[in-house]
């Protein structure tokens, strides 16, 4: 309505100019300005509309593809187990799934690289990195997939699949390949960088290497995170995991029996600390017996300190100390203080809460 009004005023100005209005010299630039602004706004609106239409088009296509995947998962999950124990039953189940897979072409958008080009304007950077971040979820699910495979490896269905596809290796070998591949990317990029110094694209290679190293760290951290047991609550509510590592920890309490205080002062506990955006967790590492991922350690939750990004109870010095001790991650802990050097040892620092009623002395390895 405003644009229509502006264009109407411009037309009225043109009429006044045609009638040789005495303020003709003032009216003409205003008419030009009104039309210019209207054209600029119109162009911006058309661009925005086109962007929204492209986003809606992509969302509709993704929704159809997602629904197709959901239906496929339902079909696979509802295959009767006893049906797949015989070769005829396994063959029939396989044919049913293959018929469903044949319908995939209807829901195919295009390959992922083409999506990035076609819908680049409506993809945010996180989506654009639309491909490598999936490794984190894949590695987190690897223990479950190994457990399921041990239960189902003798099933005729999988043997029939392997025979039909003429695969020499079992499914478990292929499930392991993505875990192995994620570590190879960094080696490839480092080799490329070695021979690309001073060349065009070297900065892009360096950026790619930094990204893959970040993803590797996230994958490694997440594998430790899913091994935490005994925590009552949702770990995802604690925010992003910033750092994790093993430390020697002493505890001191103002209140309590004198002997207990003395023991706590001299005998360290081995604890694995998880620094999240909203909490610091103290866990006890437990070695597991078994093979593969079952041999990986687990972490029994013992204690936590709340962290709040909205509280400012610490002095600037304390914040700088936290930033220094946790390698640049500036977090603000509610009712928590920190002493950079404890007991005259630069490998120890203190974390304390409630006016030092409870003190944790943490020792790093170097």
UniProtKB/TrEMBL annotation:
<feature type="domain" description="DH">
    <location>
        <begin position="132"/>
        <end position="222"/>
    </location>
</feature>
<dbReference type="InterPro" id="IPR056466">
    <property type="entry name" value="Spectrin_DBS"/>
</dbReference>
<dbReference type="Pfam" id="PF23289">
    <property type="entry name" value="Spectrin_5"/>
</dbReference>
<dbReference type="InterPro" id="IPR001331">
    <property type="entry name" value="GDS_CDC24_CS"/>
</dbReference>
<dbReference type="Pfam" id="PF22697">
    <property type="entry name" value="SOS1_NGEF_PH"/>
</dbReference>
<dbReference type="InterPro" id="IPR055251">
    <property type="entry name" value="SOS1_NGEF_PH"/>
</dbReference>
<dbReference type="InterPro" id="IPR011993">
    <property type="entry name" value="PH-like_dom_sf"/>
</dbReference>
<dbReference type="Pfam" id="PF00621">
    <property type="entry name" value="RhoGEF"/>
</dbReference>
<dbReference type="InterPro" id="IPR035899">
    <property type="entry name" value="DBL_dom_sf"/>
</dbReference>
<dbReference type="InterPro" id="IPR051336">
    <property type="entry name" value="RhoGEF_Guanine_NuclExch_SF"/>
</dbReference>
<keyword id="KW-0344">Guanine-nucleotide releasing factor</keyword>
<dbReference type="InterPro" id="IPR000219">
    <property type="entry name" value="DH_dom"/>
</dbReference>
<protein>
    <recommendedName>
        <fullName>DH domain-containing protein</fullName>
    </recommendedName>
</protein>
